[in-house]
Amino acid sequence: MNLRIGLYCLLGGLCFTVFALGNGHFAWWLLAGVVLSAAFVPVARFGPRHPLAQFGAIALTLVVVGVVCTYSEAILFYPEKMTHMLREIAGSAGSHLLVAAVLAVLAWKLKLTEPTPAIVARRSTAVTIPMVLLSALLYMIYYVVFGGITYTFLTKQYYPHAQEMMAHVGSWFWVYQFARGTLMVLAMLPVIYSLRLPRWKAAMAVGTILWLGGGCAALLAPSTMMVTAQRYDHILEIFTQNFSLGVSAVLLLRPRAAKTFMQSTTSA
């Protein structure tokens, strides 16, 4: 099983080397792909059992969290680059859909998915809706608190006009961040409600996916837009915000007392 998991990460990581075309840094993009593929190992092992369902769950995460939510924030602060960003969104979304398809096929061909059925406890719709909105509210808090700390001590030197840009956006900034948090949680619902793992393990897995898929993996590769230290600072910032969101969302959306997996699912 460990060999098959290694092949899953390596072959899935090779898909990300497409981003090295024209930009170089093949090894860094391979590393980024391997790291991101590793984040989806829990989904491959204990997520949806059908390849199409796995593709849908992974694709939603990669496209919504990794592309839409990431690029839309850049557009919010740099509206003059909207045309260029929209073109990049289309191309990046297509590439990430390909990655999702490859990961789903690899999980199927390598026989990674545990066939043992398990009942994953879910909230009722009446409870799920407010829990999703509460998760988005918590994300706003994480964004303000951890983003403020990171900006004050690490990234302020790179964004000397950040406060002026915030003032220009005005109250729409908070509307956007709430919508962004809501969108990320909704995109992760197929994973949250299909992951046949104990509640806290599922929370760790979802938090890791949101962290790595929400920009960390891409920031591993050198960029003309950021210096090395700047990229690493943002990796830390995304961890504090997105990982916290993933953990919070799972703990809110999955009941505490219910048994969400069977012991046999952990056997290799």
What can you tell me about this protein's structure?
- This protein has 268 residues and is mostly helical.
- The protein has one domain.
- 73% of the residues lie in helices and 0% in strands.
- It contains ten helices and no strands.
- The protein is globular and about 55 Å long.
- The chain starts with a helix and ends in a 15-residue tail after the last helix.
- The C terminus is likely disordered.
N- and C-termini, Cα separation: 7 Å
Note poorly predicted spans: 258-268
State the total count of DSSP E strands.
0
The percent range for strand residues is under 5%
Largest sheet: none
Number of continuous helical runs: 10
List key phrases describing it:
mainly alpha; about 270 residues; globular; disordered C terminus
Question: Short description, anyone?
Answer:
The chain is an all-alpha fold and 268 residues long. The protein is built from ten helices and no strands. The chain has helices at 2-15, 26-39, 41-46, 51-77, 82-109, 125-155, 162-169, 172-192, 199-219, 228-253.
